[in-house]
Amino acid sequence: MADHIQSSDSGLNGSNDKFSRSGFIFAAIGSAVGLGNLWKFPYITGMYGGAAFFLLFIMCLLFVGLPILLAELTIGRGGRGSAASSLVRLSGNRLWGGFGVIAIAGAFFILSFYAVVAGWTLHYMVLSFSRQLFADADFGQRFAHFNGSWLPVLWQFVGMLVTSAVVYKGVSSGIEKFNKIFLPGLVILLLLLVIRALTMKGAWEGVEFFLMPDFSKLTTESVLVALGHAFFSLSLGMGTMMTYGAYVDKRQSLGSATLAIGAGDLIYALLAGLIIFPISAAFGIAPDQGPSLVFIALPAAFAAMPLGWLFGGLFFLMLAFAALTSTVSLLEVPVAYTQDKLGWGRRLSTVVVGCLCFLIGIPSALSGGGLYGWLSFGGGRFLNGWILSPQTLFCRLAALL
To answer: How many CB atoms within 10 Å of residue 156?
Structure first.
C-alpha cells in the first residue's frame, strides 16, 4: 500500500487546491477556536474551580493535546486523503480505515447540533443589534419561547447555508479566505470586549477567580473534564486535523504549526475568560450556569450597561464568528470523505452532505419545545444528549480503565 501514498506537494487525492502556509495556520486556529472556549469553557471553569481548572486545562493541552494534534496533521499530510484513506495508505491495513470512518461520522454528527447553537448566536446577534433583545427584561422566558418555536430550524439553516457556501468554494478560495477574514475580526471583537469587561465596577473579582488558583477544588472528575475539553477545543479525534493536514504544503513545519495552533487556542481561552468572568462578577452572575449563562444571564448584564445593545451585539457577533469557523472545518471532513470514497466533485459532495446534516440536525433544533419537544436523550433534551454524551462516554471509559 505504500506506493499509493501521494508523494507530490498536492492536496487531497492529488488536487492542486491546498492551503498556503499562512492560510493553513488561520484555518486550523479557526477550527480550534470555536464555541467550545467561549460557551463551554467559561461555565466548566466556573464549575471546577476557576484558575486551578484553567491551569489543569493548559497542562492537558500541552502534554496530551499538542502531541496528538501533531500526529493527526502528520497522518493527513502523509496520506494526502480523507481521515479514513490516509490511515489506510500509511498503515497498509484497511482495518485502520474503520477508525477514520468513526472520526468522520463523529464530525458529521457534532456538526448536526453545532449548527443549531451557531444559529442561536446569529439570532441573538440580530436581536441585540436591533435592540429587540432588550425590549423585555425576562430573558429566560425569551430564550424558552425562541427555543420552543420553529425559529431554531430557520437559523440552523442559515448557519448551514453559510458553512456550505464556504466549503463549496474550495480550500484556498473558500476555507482559507473565509478564515483570513473572520479570524482577525474575531480577535478585534475579543479585545474590544475584554477592555469593556475589565473597566466595569467589580470586574476584578472575576479576574481573581479566573487567575488565582484554588487547588483544593480539583477532583478526579475535573481532570477528565479538562482532558476532554483539550481534545474538543483542538478539534481532535474527529478527523478535522487529519483532513486539513492533507492540504498542507510539504515544506511547512508541522511542529511550528502545532505550537501556533496551541498558542492560538490558549490565548483565545484566556481572552474568553477575561470577558465572561469580569462581566459575571460585575453583575453578580454565577459563572457555572451552562448554556443559560450566555443566552439568559449575559443578555441581562448587557441590558444593564450603557450601550448594552452594541456590546451585546458585538458579543454575539463574536460567538457567530467562532461558531462558523468551526462548522466550516467540521463540514470539510465528511465532504473530503465523499470526494475520496465516492469520487464525487466538491460541489456535489458539499450540497449532499450539507443537506443531510441539516436534516439530521432538525430534531436537535426542535428539542427545546414545539412539535418535537418530547424528544429526549438519556432523560434530558435531545440536544443536551448530543452535547453531553461524548464527554460522559469519555469519563465512563476512563473510569473503567
So the answer is: 28
